[in-house]
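Sorry to interrupt, but I need a hand with the structure work. I would like you to pick a protein and set down its sequence and fold. Please put the record directly below this note.
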Amino acid sequence: MKYIIFSFMVSLAALTVLYASVPATEALKPVALMKPQTDGGKPLMQVLKDRSSSRSFSSAKLPPQVLSNLLWAAFGINRPDSGGRTAPSAKNLQEIDIYIAMEDGLYLYDARNYALIPVLAEDIRALTGLQSFVKDAPMNLVYIADLARLSGLSEEDKVLYSAADTGFISENVYLFCASEGLATVVRGSIDRKALAVAMKLRPDQKIILAQTVGYPKKP
């Protein structure tokens, strides 16, 4: 009897170690995005007129099609033959990656395959900014510069290019949100060290900005 109990305890301990060693991302599955709808939206001049920043968000999630359209507008591929994107990048190096922090976890936008790649099965929305609203908004985009793609450039140019290229992407998000009646604000107030640790970034991956997106909170 003692041997049976001992064997059970050893097996239980082994299972505990096994499951503790399983990466958190295994709880997340890749998300197939829908093909973007490119034939709608408001006229450009109206969108420019309506563009604004908002810091009041509903917790309602974006429907799959809206999420797909948003990410494509931000930095999707609009010229499949050449891999050209909806936002320019210096020397076409496309060094900016978009990470999406949502309630169920952290994902990486894969523009070429219309997919969200699971990164972390943990809600880290509260770490994406110092403002109180970031933890309750349905999603926060985090713009990461992969400096390995800028090899050969001076440090000054790496900083300049990655900042400018992030600005182009974030403005695309602003214009899409104005067209779709969504609320958004781009943010620089971030504890970058804490967020980089949570995201398990490499030393040559740098957090540039974050941008919160969601439906406006109703009065």
